[in-house]
């Protein structure tokens, strides 16, 4: 089935390195010809990970200790035992958010902007109902206080109520007959033709334009090359229909956010002061269906446009029926046809809504059981491990490039690392060279010469500089015990 035109969206390239660490290390080690050097490289990779893990240990412990006070399950009980004043609790909340946002940044999560949400929601995938948040059920103080003290660019308009982080881009395919969706599109196209014939299109288009001006949906984000990636959608509404493909299976395509994390707090009530902070972690969420991760969703209902179509159809049907009755020789079959068409169209709106509601319930259930990875403490543990994995991969790749290809400026090193990832692993990312250089210099295994180019020490010397780690001593002691 051909599409009428290509539906392309553009998003900023990801900084996350989409390669499993073991695969990365093994692939790079195989490129080292000499056995002793390969052994030194593998030892260096372990020492880098052990050291970076130690750097973050205290920060992660503070993060987890703070969250134990704001865990929605039993955090309120722990707060009561602390005997803290409301002002002290507010300070601890903000400290927790500060740690959380630092971990999010180190793990290459980004706050979704209004532009990105507009791009994501500019099309439909499996969810075809308008989903909105019941903002009265969400607290505005927690995040409002944080962003009043911390400046971020391009924050979305709901930032005081909840925040959505996203990382990674994947792709999802669905193959089905889509009978109801095809019929809905055919009727929609027939409806558009009817509006043109009756000249009502101008009136309705003005109303729709006014509504869209208040809630614009963008299909593109202008980002300077090479920081953007083009993604193509395949949607039913852009397809050309024939009698054959109306009755056959079709495949639709939508890109996904590989990871999404939602942070929010429920609103306090007259009887209970809410202090719990919800942190929910989802995976493989289709961009066009990202509403399923929203907190405190309202139950869907017929859209204003559905009601307009319903009422206008009723008026036109009744007008045609009255005109047929006024004719000298009223044709009973014409009246039956008009009434059947009117009743059928109204039934179509109702049946379509019920079918969309069933799809919505299935998606919500799926998001809870299949797409929600974890929540609360489990999500934070995922994040802490993600930080370590990303930091280690950045250091290993950048050190390997300097070791294999010689001295390089920061820009050259950035390009070389991205080229290696593309050529050896067929993956793309916006390599964070600044963060990698900072860690390499902190480790003491990379320095800058007088011309501004970076160079690394030899493998053996790098291992000597980092030194024997605690983990290695523990492993050695364990081996000695086993052999004794």
UniProtKB/TrEMBL annotation:
Transmembrane segments: 307-326, 332-351
UniProtKB keywords: Membrane, Transmembrane, Transmembrane helix
Superkingdom, natural source: Eukaryota
InterPro entries: DUF3754
Protein name, per record: Aminopeptidase
């Amino acid at each position: 089935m051909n599409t009428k035109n290509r539906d392309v969206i553009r998003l900023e390239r990801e900084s996350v390195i989409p390669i499993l660490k073991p695969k990365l290390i093994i692939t790079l080690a195989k490129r080292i010809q000499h056995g002793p050097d390969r052994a030194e490289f593998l030892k260096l990779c372990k020492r880098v990970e052990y050291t970076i893990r130690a750097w973050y240990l205290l920060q992660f412990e503070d993060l987890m200790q703070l969250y134990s006070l704001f865990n929605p399950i039993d955090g309120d009980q722990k707060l009561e035992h602390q005997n803290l004043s409301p002002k002290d609790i507010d300070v601890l909340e903000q400290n927790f958010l500060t740690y959380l946002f630092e971990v999010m940044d180190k793990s290459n999560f980004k706050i979704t902007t209004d532009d990105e949400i507009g791009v994501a929601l500019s099309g439909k995938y499996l969810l075809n109902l308008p989903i909105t948040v019941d903002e009265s059920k969400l607290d505005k103080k927690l995040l409002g206080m944080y962003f009043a003290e911390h400046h971020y660019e391009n924050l979305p308009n709901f930032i005081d109520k909840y925040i959505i982080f996203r990382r990674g881009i994947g792709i999802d395919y669905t193959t089905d007959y889509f009978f109801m969706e095809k019929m809905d599109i055919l009727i929609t196209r027939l409806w558009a033709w009817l509006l043109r014939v009756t000249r009502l299109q101008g009136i309705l288009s003005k109303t729709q334009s006014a509504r869209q001006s208040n809630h614009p949906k963008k299909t593109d984000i202008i980002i300077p090359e090479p920081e953007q990636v083009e993604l193509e959608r395949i949607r039913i509404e852009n397809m050309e229909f024939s009698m054959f493909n109306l009755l056959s299976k079709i495949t639709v395509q939508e890109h996904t956010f590989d990871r999404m994390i939602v942070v929010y707090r429920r609103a306090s009530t007259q009887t209970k002061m809410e202090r719990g902070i919800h942190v929910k972690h989802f995976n493989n969420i289709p961009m066009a269906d990202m509403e399923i991760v929203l907190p405190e969703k309202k139950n869907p209902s017929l859209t204003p446009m559905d009601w307009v179509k319903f009422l206008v159809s009723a008026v036109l049907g009744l007008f045609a029926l009255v005109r047929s009755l006024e004719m000298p020789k009223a044709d009973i079959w014409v009246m039956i046809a008009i009434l059947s068409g009117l009743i059928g169209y109204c039934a179509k709106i109702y049946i379509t809504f019920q079918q969309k509601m069933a799809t919505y319930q299935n998606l919500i259930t799926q998001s809870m059981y299949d797409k929600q990875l974890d929540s609360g403490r489990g999500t934070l543990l995922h994040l802490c491990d993600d930080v370590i994995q990303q930091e280690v991969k950045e250091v290993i790749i950048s050190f390997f490039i300097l070791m294999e290809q010689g001295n390089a400026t920061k820009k050259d090193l950035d390009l070389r690392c991205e080229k290696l990832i593309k050529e050896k692993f067929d993956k793309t990312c916006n390599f964070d060279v600044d963060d990698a250089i900072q860690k390499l210099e902190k480790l003491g295994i990379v320095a800058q010469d007088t011309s501004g180019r970076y160079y690394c020490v030899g493998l053996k010397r790098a291992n000597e500089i980092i030194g024997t780690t605690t983990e290695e001593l523990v492993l050695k002691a364990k081996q000695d015990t086993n052999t004794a």
